[in-house]
Design goal:
elongated
């Protein structure tokens, strides 16, 4: 799962460009936030991917800090939400389009909410590995106690 969650920056970048493209296309047609079903679905996908990226980042931090217990829940919510939003973009003219958009956004937002609450209740940040100096060795020769450099 670490490899999947490690792609959080790519997910955010794709989401940003999709949302920007939807807003740009809407501005060309005369309304920045056009009510066209396809553009609405694109904006939802872009926003959803950016929200999912933040949830993926939290999941990666928790996994690197040896607290991967919520990883499967993050994975389920992020993947399910992104797939639902993608289905909405593929066929935005169905009667279920609004429900798919809100459902996908709800799933990725739930993943982010679980991540924020879990980090608030039980913080998990990766720590730097501790350095072990060889026995009898000095930490830094330039800061030796003899005063010579």
């Amino acid at each position: 799962m670490r490899n999947f969650f490690g792609n959080f920056a790519l997910a955010f970048l794709v989401g940003f460009f999709v949302a920007a493209a939807a807003i740009g296309i809407g501005s060309i047609s005369g309304q920045i936030f056009s009510s066209d079903p396809f553009l609405t679905a694109l904006r939802s996908l872009g926003g959803g991917l950016m929200i999912a990226a933040f949830a993926m980042w939290i999941a990666l931090l928790r996994d690197q800090a040896s607290k991967p217990g919520l990883g499967p829940l993050f994975l389920l919510l992020v993947v399910a939400g992104a797939l639902v939003l993608l289905i909405d973009v593929i066929d935005p003219f169905t009667t279920l389009s609004a429900a798919l958009g809100w459902g996908g956004l709800g799933a990725v937002t739930a993943a982010l909410a679980v991540g924020v609450v879990s980090m608030w209740i039980s913080p998990a940040y990766p720590t730097n590995p501790t350095a072990h100096w060889p026995e009898g060795g000095e930490q830094d020769p330039s800061h030796s106690s003899s005063g010579t450099h």
